[in-house]
Structures are given as C-alpha cells and as structure tokens.
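Revision sheet: structure tokens.
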Amino acid sequence: MNYLAFKKALRDFSLFSIKDIKKIDSEFDSRRLVEWQQKGYILKIKRGYYCFEPCRKEERFLNFIANKIYKPSFVSFESALAYYNFIPEGVFTTTSATTLNTASYTTAVGNFTYRHLKPKLFFGYKLIQDEDFTVKIAEPEKVLLDYFYLNKINSMNDMIEMRFNEIRLKEMIDFEKLENYLKVFDSPTVAKRIVLFKKHINA
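Predicted:
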C-alpha cells in the first residue's frame, strides 16, 4: 500500500493505531510507518499510535488522545478542572484517571499522566462529542472527588491556593449528586475535604 492509498483509507481517523491499519490491510508492512515518519507524513504519538501531520494539538484533541493511548481511562483531575473553568490556570499535562497502574508519557504533541483509581471509583464520567471524535471526561462532581481523593487539601489555606472559580462551581455542581458520589468513595478524608470545600465556596 502506498502512502496516498493509506491516507485515503484512514482519512476519517484523527488518531490511528496499528490495529486500525491491520483492519484495512492485514499484510501492511510496518516499515512504511518509519519511512513516512522520516518524510514528515505522519507523527508517532506513542508506540502503536499515530496521526497525520500536521497533527492537531488543541486541548480537546489532546483529551481524545489521552483516552486512546492508555485504556481504560477518562480525563479528570487538573485537566478536567481546567476544562470546566473551575480553576484559572491552563494545564500543560493532560491528566486522566485509570484502573491500570499510574503512568506518564511525553510525546510529540503533549504530556499525558494517568493516576490510578480503584475499579469501584471508575465511574462518573460522560461522553462529549466533539466534531469527529468522542472524549470521556469526569463529570463536574466527580472531578472534585477524584482530585480531593488523591491530593492533600487539608486546610482552608490549601483550598484558597486552588483559586477555585466559585461562581462557575455553584452554577455547575449538583450538590445532591456530589453527596451520592461521595458515598461510593466511602472515605472520611474525602468527606472532610468536601465539607471544607463547601465552606470555602459558601455552598
């Protein structure tokens, strides 16, 4: 298969894997991938995953890549807090939750980190359709719990340093859902942090 035929066959793939390639050509010679990288036709994201050049590097596409290159996972923690504008700063690493081991990848398009959650805590995410791809991202209530579960926010000063957007939080958070999700965590530490959080935003 030459490059033009290859590109035409995968034109609908924003990100493609070796498995995707084998579906269209079971005899595909993987040496072509090295050749096409050298020519600047394609970009290697991680072993087994590629995109056509120029590869998109905006936040929403990086979230999609994060979902794909380490499964199962969904975008959460600082990345989801920033996505919902709960915190003011942009983030330079796309951070996700996974039931697999904690992992990090530095790629040509961005940095990706995965933090381990117990299987029972792998819930509370939604699917966002964005043009030609779908992204799994924590719901507003769940990202707060994920963050407080794995980060030491134990004082009002810690909470203030987060620089939460109080107006945005009050608009988006369903506090009844937050309490229901909190029960699944079954963590006195997280419960204390949620109480502190509510005091901080006067909820």
